[in-house]
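EI: anyone free to look at a 418-residue chain?
SC: sure, send it
EI:
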Amino acid sequence: MQGAGTIDMKIIPVREGPPMIFSLEHIDNPYPHYAAQREKHGIYFDEEMKAWIVLEHDLIVAAFKDARLSSDRVTKFRGKFSDEKLKPLFNTLSLLMLQRDEPDHTRLRNLVHYAFKRAAVDNYDDNIRRLARELLAPAIQSGEMDLVADYAVPLPILVISEIVGIPAEDRKQVKAWCDAFSIVALNFYANISDEDLEAGAVAVQEFTDYLKEKVEKLHREPEDNLLSALVHAEEDGDKLSLDELVANTLLLLNAGNETTSCLLTNGTLALLRNPDELARLRENPDLIRTAVEELLRFDSPPQFIGRMAAEEVELGGATIGEGDLVLLVLGAAGRDPKTYEAPDELHIDRHPNHHVSFGSGHHICAGIQLARLEGRIAFEMLLETFADMELATDDIKFGHNVNLRSPAALPLKVTPAR
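SC: here you go
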């Protein structure tokens, strides 16, 4: 086999029917669709998307660990977008550590890890609880809330903004920049509109101008926050360039923002739809750690992530050609019956639970520790604050982001705890 354009039908058939990943038809519940496709083929080539789709857990883990499947999607795909105005956007994308291979990936990751240690993220429990308490206070009085708008969206951006060092008055604008950039970063190699690309380009330019001014000041006057730690991070004489600093600050703001919002929204919905498990968690609060891992498996915040074949790769009986796009469907991996018993059931004490929602191998999420801490505290605070929660409507509408799929709103009726 010579690559995607010359698929040998005897080895891997081409998928038939509408696009699997990017069809809004399945966004409310893509998991039965994943299962139907996975029963046919754990890996197959999608002719319309011009990409390999990988659905089995073990194949996805193997792909994460295979250095021949490159994280650099930018080099190939920036050529598809010839507009000169998009060059700064793709330059920024190319400097994200999740878009880099070795040795650049390790160099960037080490510098970011150094900054995280300096910023004392591990000791942020009290601040997360304070912010959660402030956001939940109005619902104690009213008896109702939209979990998305009132809690799941604002809490993560407040937390990561405080850690990074974004002033309160700037956070709404920074959130808007992050959202526009995130759509591009997650979708440019698969399916994206010209409007989203242009919005991302504007966001990157405005955020770069904003951050440069702060970086210049932090060089002169260091502060006790993650951005200052990034500015002064140094390992073996190496430092982040200004462009690397801008790109990876955007990455950290996004990684500590939208994916955590998805976890809180989808996780709360899963618990409400599984009242026996919610009751178990209330009765056994010590299960919160395994519960968070199970919620991540049950409804992965990112549904997929892409890789590019730097050379020909054999995976699951398929020959992936050099230059081919490979989409690892994390949502499907979490429901693979070859890996998990009763994968479509929620069990808050599931163990072991080797889900891939944070990735795997060298590219496992750099903010994994913060995400787990924030998720644990956020769910603890919900259960401590409200003795009872119920959906105010069964008509739950999901947003249009098929990668970070999540309800656009989640109206609840709540009963405060005494």
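EI: Confidence is low (pLDDT under 50) at residues 1-11.
SC: 👍
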